[in-house]
Design goal:
The protein is an alpha/beta fold. It has two domains: about 70 residues; about 300 residues, phage-related protein like fold (Alpha-Beta Complex). The chain is built from twelve helices and eleven strands. The strands form three sheets. It has a five-stranded mixed β-sheet with strand order 5-11-8-6-7. The radius of gyration is 39 Å and the shape is rod-shaped.
């Protein structure tokens, strides 16, 4: 007999015992029923009850076997992909802060496939529910190339012909001859530290993830911007990253004022770079130009910067002198090997989530850029 037949049999036995017991009660309530008949009915009730007890035990045994053979139902995962990622990233942060190992499942949930984990630490822009510092910006993020390739080497030019006579810009030809036809990216270590209180660390997965990612994004952005626009880098490893360092031999073009210097710089670029040129400058310098050109009129203040200067303009206070050029020849590369660590300031009680990463910024062709400056009088 299968489980359902055994169960039906037990139910039948229960019904039989119930009917026998009800009949006995009716006989007891009738004074005309003989004692012998009541005794006989009692025996019927006892037999039916005994049969039911045996059937019930058989049913319970069969039910236990049936449950054992059933495959456990899969848990219904109600988390959205974003919630899964928040949960995994929050676990990574909490385990790191507690000096505990981070499971491979966490790295996989974060889309991490390298051997050490962490190559997805450059997060996309997300909204935040925790009040933090405003998002930092690096104007080159929209202009330069960003890659994550270990030991990256690339050609200085995007295409070549059978000979280099097609390079009409003789300065570019000389630069390629001097520097070589390929650009090799180096590994330069830097750290980003995100401070948090215990209330943040113990808060919701979403808030913790957004808070840490916001801090990492700001730290990385500041690092990218500082190495590219450092007016006087002292570290030998970072000198080649700055547009202003003399080792990059970026030509300076002057003019009687900033407007003339910038327009002269645009004109001085070879047409191959001039077509895609962008001006990166501080907003303070742009206002100087507007005040000079407007000469008391308010008309120019409402004009687009590209209409005033003739090329797209991107503002950053980090640009101590305007830089004009084709920024596709500027490239950041991150090594995928990223390390996580933790630290604590015992005086303030603030915990720090520390990311160690390796990055390089290469100016692939110096001749694609010009620095605009006012001629000294």
């Amino acid at each position: 007999m299968n489980f359902y037949q055994i169960k039906k049999n037990a139910m039948d036995m229960a019904d039989e015992a119930k009917q026998a017991n009800e009949k006995l009660n009716e006989m007891l309530a009738n004074p005309q029923v003989a004692t012998e008949d009541i005794t006989a009915q009692q025996k019927v009730v006892d037999a039916a009850q005994e049969r039911y007890e045996v059937a019930k035990k058989q049913m319970e045994k069969a039910e236990a076997e049936e449950k054992k053979n059933l495959k456990p139902a899969k848990e219904v995962n109600t988390l959205t992909p974003e919630q899964k990622r928040d949960k995994a990233f929050a676990e990574l942060v909490r385990n790191t802060m507690a000096k505990e190992a981070v499971s491979r499942n966490v790295y996989e949930a974060l889309g991490d496939n390298d051997t050490t984990g962490g190559n997805k630490f450059l997060p996309k822009t997300v909204s935040t529910n925790i009040i933090t510092q405003p998002d930092e910006t690096n104007p080159l993020r929209q202009l330069s190339t960003i890659t994550q390739i270990p030991n990256l080497e690339i050609p200085r030019l995007t295409f070549t012909l059978g000979d280099d006579s097609f390079i009409q810009d003789t300065d570019t030809a000389k630069e390629i001859e001097a520097k070589g036809e390929t650009v090799a990216f180096t590994r330069n270590k830097f750290k980003v530290m995100v401070g948090m209180s215990e209330t943040v660390l113990l808060g919701s997965d979403a808030n913790l993830t957004q808070y840490v990612e916001n801090g990492l994004r700001n730290g990385v952005t500041v690092k990218e911007r500082s190495v590219a626009f450092n007016p006087a880098p002292t570290s030998e490893a970072e000198k080649h990253m700055s547009f202003y360092d003399a080792s990059n031999n970026i030509k300076s073009v002057s003019g009687a004022d900033l407007y003339e210097a910038i327009t002269n710089a645009i004109a001085d670029l070879h047409e191959a770079y001039r077509e895609n040129a962008t001006i990166v400058m501080s907003y303070k310098d742009y206002l100087k130009i507007i005040r000079t050109l407007a000469n008391g009129s308010a008309t120019l203040y409402g004009a687009q910067p590209s209409q005033v200067l003739g090329k797209p303009v991107v503002f950053t206070d980090a640009a101590v002198k305007p830089i004009v050029g084709d920024f596709s020849y500027s490239q950041y590369n991150y090594d995928i090997n990223t390390l996580y660590d933790q630290d604590k300031d015992v005086k303030t009680g603030i915990n720090y989530f520390v990311v160690t990463a390796w990055m390089d910024h290469q100016i692939k062709l110096s001749n694609a850029f010009r620095i605009a400056e006012v001629a000294s009088k």
